[in-house]
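Retro notes - structure team

What went well: the batch runner handled both jobs without manual restarts.
What didn't: labels got mixed up in the shared folder, which is why I'm recording both outputs here explicitly, each with its sequence directly above its tokens.

Job 1
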Amino acid sequence: MTYEIIKEKEIPEIDVLVAGFPAMGLIGGIASEQLINTLDLEQVASVKCDEFPPTAVIFDGIPRRPVRFFAGKGFLLVKSDMVIPAELSDGLAKAIIDWAAEQGVKEVIIFDAIPERDEEEEKKIWGVLSSYSATEKAKKLDLDLIKRGAITGISSSMLLYVREKELNAVGMLAEGSTSLPDPRAAARLLEKFAEYRGLDIDTESLVESAEELEKQYAKLVNQAKQAQDDMDTKSAAPPLYG
């Protein structure tokens, strides 16, 4: 299995790779998309692999590969518009990290999520480090480190490979919804990242979209409940003839 990085434009000066892939609550993907739109990041490369599902993402009538690199504001961003199949995660992670290191990347930040622990408590951003040398980065990001647990998917593959490459990496895991897209959790991730990098990133629009999503979900739940109540009422009615 081979991965080819197709460079489309010159890469500006960068020092950090940010990775955000769609997984639980689509949080990493939402955060990545918001970075691209808010900071006007420019697409600079894409990933080609014959084993990818046959998928093209259409923008303004033009098809593009689903895994792409963007650059600007001193960092490189890799995102995907498809969920990465488990069997491709290790190979893709290596291809991404190797190519990013060739471009001058010294640090990797990975956006991802974990299930929320308690609906009543304030949601946290948790951290996973590639090595103890990344501890200072975690302190600057004000993350609560996960002492014991497990992560899966391409985020885990990237963290393990970055450790082998002896680069510093921090996984930023937002507590979020397991059943719905969670733009509110993505906003919390971006607020941490914006403070760390000294950037101005719009997160209000994500909170607004979260509120709208919650309203739509509540409406659907009410409709489903009403439909179930109607069915229960009909089934409980006595027959007309007996």
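Job 2
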Amino acid sequence: MIPVRGFEGKTVAVFGLARTGLAAARALIAGGAQVAVWDEKPEARAAAEAAGLPVVDLFRADWSAFDALMLSPGVPLTFPEPHWVVVRARDAGVEIVGDMELFARTVNAALEHKRPKIVAITGTNGKSTTTALIGHVCAQAGRDVRIGGNIGVGVLDLEDMHGGAVYVLEMSSYQLDLTSSLHADVTVILNISPDHLERHGSMEGYVAAKRRILMNQGQGDTAVIGVDDPWGQQICTEITAANRRTIVPISASKAMGRGVYVLNGALYDAMGERAQEVVDLTAARSLPGRHNWQNAAAAYAAAKGLGIDPAEAAQHLLTFPGLAHRMETVGTLGRVRFVNDSKATNADAARQALSSYPKSYWIAGGRPKTDGIDPLEDLFPRVVKAYLIGEAAPAFAKVLQGKAAAAECGTLDVAVAQAYADAAASNQDAIVLLSPACASFDQYPDFEARGEAFRAAVQRLTHAAKGAA
């Protein structure tokens, strides 16, 4: 745990008692603050009480008693409308912060020689893989690395800091909206495409949230920017004009006069006098496809920004074991391979998986994003059949009509069983691919739970097949 500094003797309201809120409450208390915690779900309040945390009804509370509100990132700050707890805090003039801001203030309060290095990663797609990949490279290079944030462990639940530590943190746009003083030694913006627009009001609001990761950087810092989309190109151009930090453009689709890029699987470093090929990424079994090449370029550039030897960093890319729920093979039954890509929560992420296989039996659906699966129409010829689940199933079936075979299965276990039966009947090598292009919240609390449900369904099929043998 990282005890939060800067709130000693103060009272902080904590709203939202999932992983982030509980960690923040414990860390605030450890740092000398008092807390008043609340969640709209009775079971969450009961769990907090069982953990010894002071539960206070923030709807009826006297807000003049609070010095700050620690808001969980899933709670609407501005759009589609501010949550009532946000309104209460603003009306009372109470500062609203997130867990990343509490972490940032704790780092800033430390003596300079005790401050850790921080790598902050954001982007629409690839954040988790890149975060884990940077953490892997750092660990293999002998650094004392801690990986968390929007992936795995909440930032305040990570091991406490010291001057030699490296924190590699995935940051969502929701978290960035609540962060103002974080100074990252290395920042990464992988890519930007439309997502979470209902929470940011517009594409401009979403891009503005992503850009917040660059705040507070200066001379000696590194910004790694993906330039394969127009929003990334614009950000890179604008911060290059400011010219305060080392800026490393990255691309997985084109050669550049300056930057780090990948062509046909070969990673090139063009930050010196001339471009040099540094590693063949086709040898990295856990990093298939162009989207993973962008992740690898970002990880390589970030490692250089931390002072890790470039040749060493490049070699460590090849030993990355991969990330759960991202194009993860979870089982093979006969000639059928099951691939868990539950983290593909929008069409752009699903595109990366669909384009990696010439043919697939595709499981898709959940709570749909704004653009649905219409942007994937060019990939429908690769879909042998689609198996649709959740709220999106009827709408997705209409989009696929006349373009790809589809079945509305409703639930994931039904979809897995039907997809396997059809794939096995083909008597060919086949891929059953869970790449939902949707959020999970209609049927599961998060994409991890959905991915584990897929894994469990595959295991049940495997056990049944063994029992019948």
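One thing worth noting from job 2: The chain has 15 helices and 21 strands.
We'll revisit the folder naming next retro.
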